[in-house]
Amino acid sequence: MLKRNAGRHAPASHSLRMTLVIYLLVGTLLPLLIVGIVSYTSIYSILSGKIGSGISASLRQEALSLENAIDNLDFASKQFALDGQIVAEMSSFLEEKQIYRKSQIMNSINEKINLVNFTNPYIGLTAYIMPGSEDPVLFTNMSTRRNFDISRLPSFMRYNGADYYGPHGTMYAVGDNVVFSERRIVRVNGQHDLYVYLETNYSLLRKIFNPQAYGMQVNHLLVNQDGTATNIIDGQVPARVVDAAGTSTEAAHEELDGYHLFRYESPQGWKLVAVVKKSVFNSEIYTWFYKMILLALLTLLFAGMLAWLIWRRIYGPLRKVNLEIIRMAENVTAPVAFTNVEEFDFVLTNFQQMKDQVNELILAVARNEKQKSQFEIEKLLSQINPHFLHNTLNTVQWLARLNGQKEIDKLVTLLVKVLHYNLGKQSIIVTIGEEIEAIRNYMELQRIRYDYEFEFNVQADEEVLGAAVPRFLLQPLVENSIYHGLSDNGRVDVIITAHGPGEVQLCVRDNGTGMDEVQIGELLADGDVGKRGLGIGFSYVMRMLRTYYGERMTLQIHSAVGEGTTITIIIPIKGKEDFDD
Q1: What are phi and psi of 279, to 5 degrees?
Q2: Cβ(227)–Cβ(248) under 8 Å?
Q3: N- or C-end of the chain: fewer Cβ atoms within 10 A?
Q4: The pLDDT of residue 8
């Protein structure tokens, strides 16, 4: 009977099997279909040769712009060197002896130079030069460099009866741009060797060789007319590639040492070469490869999602209950995540109620521990203050017998301030400025008591006076310095400074008898807080620091026998609102 009933329920397992089959078919066929479409599109785009044709077209456009700039130089130089009126004026200027007449000719020539430059924005520096003379520059529209020497410029080509140089730095005195230049002879009367010198506009080359015109990183090489010099316009190119660019070849495109070279040979005689790394040139192929990798990852992700869906459908709710039990040990405040399954959610609801009760108990224990710490601090405080009060009242009695009322008035006033601060009902959190004021009053009382046998000094940075600290933090340390450290001609220094980002350093230093390593170790150890003298005050300070700062505070003691003691405390800067009183 049991076997028969089991057989009746067995066909229900086929539903999950069909679901798995459908998921697997979709998970394998759909990514393959996408891979086929993307691969076909990418390969077709690469084989169409759009990269090479695009680089060649951009290279040709740049070369035409450079040819146009050289033609502009040629046209302008002919105006200055072949125009009869300007040549005649230059001849007259060179032969004229009268200064007034010479200045008139000079003004006329300068006007013509400015006019030509104004009408041709592609022309930069223009100058008439006479090599070999003491001052070779006769006329110019801009100031030139002192070491003006055309013979040192790199030769580019000979074109239409003029010499062209470049690319090279401009001869403009305050410029540093790269330009092309031209020198053309001016035939004037007499035996004078006169030339006109012109440069391209200072920004022309940057406009021609625009690195964004190709859509990829491309370097330019410029080969002169003789093929003897190859200039690197931008970027860095290996020496073998530079040498190959200058060789005579008719190939418009070639590959060499991991680079693609695209050439353009100008009718003017020079060559412009675009150099592209293979890795940059094949970027579309790499893009297609990365797409394939991405698709493979997406396929794996899709398969993982399928597995996750199956796992969630069958085992998810049970594992969530187990996970919530584990998470309770790590984070008791996090709410439980429900499964949307009624039976499991009922269990999780009861589990959440249990977590809420545990959280309330934990908070109650934490509050009790904090109150316990505060009570222990107040207990230590009550042990320290009566001892100090007894000594001070003895001093008042002594002054009343030996001195006049002014001393008594001063002493009582100081005593009232100290008692009001130490035994008052105000918040246990005060500012550093208030703590310093209380220490000053306390030390003045002690100085009166000890007949001014020691000195006391307080130094504090203004920017930290508003920082909040627990009340009565520094006075126990100062009191220890007086009672246990000072001898004749003693001195106590309190130095408060900013220390690093968001921290303040409090330092109490004396020049007394000091302590050895054993005493320092006993003082820093968590010993008996009920002992008298040095232990009470220091235990109070340690308890305050641990209660309000925890691991964020640093306390150090530097001392040696006969050399005094320095106690340094480093705590984070807080405001009163940052403390929970």
Answers
A1: -65, -35
A2: yes
A3: N
A4: 44
